[in-house]
Design brief:
The chain is of the alpha/beta class. The chain has 20 helices and 20 strands. Helix 3 (58-67) packs parallel to helix 4, helix 13 packs across helix 20 (516-530) and helix 16 crosses helix 17 (447-471). Bound molecules: 2-acetamido-2-deoxy-6-O-phosphono-alpha-D-mannopyranose.
């Protein structure tokens, strides 16, 4: 902290330190935009735990000052045809805000042209004997403001200037970290609209966090909910049949208007021949009333190449065949159909209908019999001709020390999958133990089982950090019987949290849970149908 702070400044910064500042600004000209209402909101915000408020407008500030003793950061916003600068642009406003009782006056500290220069405004704030808060957009703004005597440096305008609007659509954590190096009071402000983002700001080094829209712009917050609910209510025109042939079970479903209408399941016999798998699928489909010509999507564990040929990567999951022309055979023996890997199908479903909706760089990881996955890069499912892309289970793990059944040494799958957990249990002296039992024992507190579950979760966290590092993934959904098991994701989060923040991504459980591969298989059939000329490379 700066050494030359006055006692009054130091005492106000102490009150703000580590706290939430509520920016109490209703929508301009909206029904809440009235000093009486702003005052009531400010009181409610302080009751809720805000340590200070940020108030726009002299009349609002006067009214709030009568009602609360907590520090007030004052601003006046003015619109102009000649400059985009809006926050406290007139020297006269500074005077009026101080007279109205502001403890801190915030001003636009960017180097953009405006009515009265930023140097003059800052000088007027300091001359009036109150604290200056600099609303900055770049590190250069922060450095200048600090050098010129502002005691609070805010990241407020990052993302709101021509220079920064392209880069910073999310809160600017990097600016917080950089500003913090200047040893000054840093206020995180700008798009911190969830409790999680606010706490991340503090962990990134902010001294306090200002939240505005998410607290006081009811119209905007309400619209977010209303829009999201409207979206979820929409009937999806997705009708047909889907197959999910996984390492553990085979499920066949009838899907109507985007919902599973009926589903039947059988245990997958890993040692069954290819012909037996086909026969089983055909029988299960008939049971559900499938007729040749109905839309049919098939998802399978294993690699599906651009010709629709199916082969196992992990040879122990599908023991009896090396490669088969699945799409051709399905079309010949059952009816028009599309084929996709099970984890890629779930990724597609999660991205279109679940936790990945609206995300540009998103990953799905299934931890089940094997470890599979899929990637959404720049808003599109990432695929390749061989069908291997997205098979994150066969990336290497720092904990891998055995030969995987894919014939690659030390893979994540050989550490984290259900099969790997079961094998490790047997090796640890617990014969005939499957992954499910290991989880039961772990939840009962048995140390050996906890160790195995934790090893899998740590390996998954390492993969998550790799996906962030290599591909810029921002959100990862976990599925599969292990990924969805109680407490598993919390363990992955704990390990990822222990890594530097730069490598963090949002981790969630897959919304569609075990229905993901089924829904995704049909979504895939639907889009391949539309896109007949471009059967595989969407
Ligand atoms: C394996 C691999 C993936 C599959 C993943 C999850 C095979 C046979 N399977 O990594 O193709 O997506 O497992 O599928 O190589 P599960 O249902 O078998 O767990």
């Amino acid at each position: 902290m700066q050494k030359t702070l006055s006692i009054r400044t130091a005492s106000i910064l102490k009150k703000l330190k580590g706290g939430l500042v509520a920016s109490c600004q209703p929508v301009d000209g909206g029904t809440m935009d009235h000093p009486k209402i702003v005052t009531a909101m400010a009181q409610a915000l302080i009751s809720g735990g805000a340590v200070a408020v940020r108030i726009e407008g002299v009349e609002n500030l006067k009214a709030v000052r009568q009602a609360i003793t907590a520090p007030i950061i004052g601003i006046v916003k003015s619109d102009s045809n000649t400059s985009p600068v809006r926050i406290t642009v007139f020297l006269d406003d500074v005077k009026k805000l101080v007279q109205a009782g502001a403890d801190v006056v915030a001003y636009d500290a960017t180097d953009r042209f405006r009515h009265d220069s930023r140097d003059e405004i800052l000088k007027a704030i300091l001359d009036a004997g109150v604290i200056a808060m600099a609303d900055c957009s770049t590190l250069a703004d922060c450095e200048k403001a600090r050098d010129d005597g502002a005691s609070i440096i805010g990241t407020t305008l990052s993302g709101y200037t021509q220079e920064t609007e392209q880069e910073n659509r999310n809160p600017d954590f990097e600016l917080i970290r950089q500003a913090k190096k200047m040893d000054v009071f840093v206020m995180a402000e700008g798009r911190f609209d969830t409790p999680e983002l606010a706490s991340r700001a503090i962990r990134a080094g902010a001294d306090a966090v200002t939240v505005g829209t998410a607290l006081t712009r009811l119209e905007i917050v309400t619209e977010r909910f209303a829009k999201s609910i409207r979206g979820a209510n929409k009937k999806i025109e997705l009708n047909g049949f889907a197959v999910d042939l996984g390492g553990t079970k085979t499920a066949v479903a009838k899907i109507e208007t985007g919902k599973i209408f009926n589903v039947i399941k059988r245990k997958t016999i890993g040692t069954a021949s290819y012909g037996t798998h086909l026969k089983l699928i055909s029988e299960m489909l008939s049971k559900l009333g499938y007729r040749k010509g109905d839309l049919l999507g098939v998802a399978v564990t294993g690699r599906v190449d651009e010709e629709g040929r199916w082969s196992a990567v992990n040879q122990s999951t599908l023991g009896k065949f090396s490669s088969a022309a699945l799409r051709t055979d399905l079309i010949k023996n059952i009816g028009p159909s599309s084929v996709i890997n099970d984890a890629l199908a779930a990724t597609l479903a999660e991205h279109q209908l679940g936790s990945g909706e609206g995300h540009q760089n998103f990953a799905f990881i299934t931890i089940s019999t094997g470890v599979g996955g899929g990637l959404i890069l720049n808003g599109r499912l990432h695929t390749d001709a061989s069908g291997l892309a997205g098979h994150v289970g066969f990336s290497s793990s720092p904990f891998g020390n055995t030969l995987c059944n894919s014939n690659r040494y030390g893979t994540l799958e050989s550490v984290a999958s259900g099969n790997a957990i079961a094998s490790a249990a047997v090796a640890a002296g617990y014969p005939h133990t499957d992954a499910h039992t290991v989880f039961e024992k772990a939840n009962a507190g048995e140390a050996w089982a906890l160790k195995l579950v934790d090893r899998s979760a740590t390996a998954a966290a390492e993969l998550a950090a790799d996906l962030v590092t290599i591909l810029g993934i921002t959100k990862i959904a976990f599925g599969g019987s292990i990924g969805l098991a109680t407490g598993y994701l919390d363990r992955v989060r704990k390990h990822l949290d222990a890594m530097p923040q730069l490598f963090h991504a949002e981790l969630v459980t897959a919304d569609l849970a075990e229905n993901g591969p089924l829904m995704g298989a049909l979504l895939n059939a639907n889009r391949e149908n539309i896109d007949e000329n471009n059967h595989f490379s969407r």
